[in-house]
Every structure is written in C-alpha cells, then in structure tokens.
Amino acid sequence: MKKSRRDFNINYSLLIIHHSLFTKRTMKEYHLRISTPAGDKYSGEAVRLSVRGTEGSLGILAGHIPFVTVLKPADCHFIMPGGEKREFSCGSGLLLVESDRVTVLSSEISMKN
Q1: Going from the N-terminus, what domains does the chain have, and what CATH number goes with each?
Q2: What is the pLDDT tens value at each position of the chain, 113 positions in all?
C-alpha cells in the first residue's frame, strides 16, 4: 500500500514534535557571553546559539568542537535553559567556542527582547 504525501507530512511532523520535546529535556548548558567594547550585553547560561559566520549559518550546542570564526552582521538568537528564545542583532565580529563556554565579540550588538 502506497503512502500518501499527507501521511508522510503527518509522520514527519510527529517526529519533529517528539524530537523537540526530547531535546528540550536533554540539552546541556554552557556559559554564553555576548560582548561589545562597551561591556557585556549578556552573560549567562544557554543551550543553543545561532549566528552567521563567513561560510554561512552556525548552530552551537554544548560540547561543540572548539574553534574561532569571523561573524557577519546578522539577526541572531540563543535559547536559554528554560526554552526562552532571546534575539539580538550582531555586527561583524568574532565567535570563540571553547570546551565549556562560547563568546560573541562584536562592535555592535542590539538585544531585541
């Protein structure tokens, strides 16, 4: 029996819902610092960070391999441990990923919420 496109979409949607519920409970935290020359805009725990690098979008979770990259100006966001999404605009800058912390350094950062 051939499955319809609708059946596929329903099954895929259920998989995404299950995955999002599962990952919210199991995502590890790391220390995130978002900073400008004028001072820190955010310093606290996060479970995910989304930014734009020179090669495209980056998603950073706890335990990511350490690296440094250049950031392009973009709208970015991070997810706090409780699931709250915080958005910010970032000018060009640097992203430093270490074993237990992530740092965003930029000349311009504007927190949206």
Answers
A1: 28-111 (2.60.15.10)
A2: 555 555 555 555 444 554 555 555 567 999 999 999 999 999 999 999 999 999 999 999 999 999 999 999 999 999 999 999 999 999 999 999 998 899 999 999 999 97
**Pair of tokens at residue 31:** 């220390």
Q: What does pTM read for this prediction?
A: 0.75
Burial profile 50-64: b = 16 or more Cβ within 10 angstroms, e = fewer: bbbeeeeebebebee
* H or E element in which residue 11 lies: helix 5-26
Q: 72 burial class (0-12, 13-18, 19+ CB within 10 angstroms)?
A: middle
CA 37 – CA 46 distance, rounded (Å): 22
d(CA 72, CA 52) in angstroms, rounded, equals 6
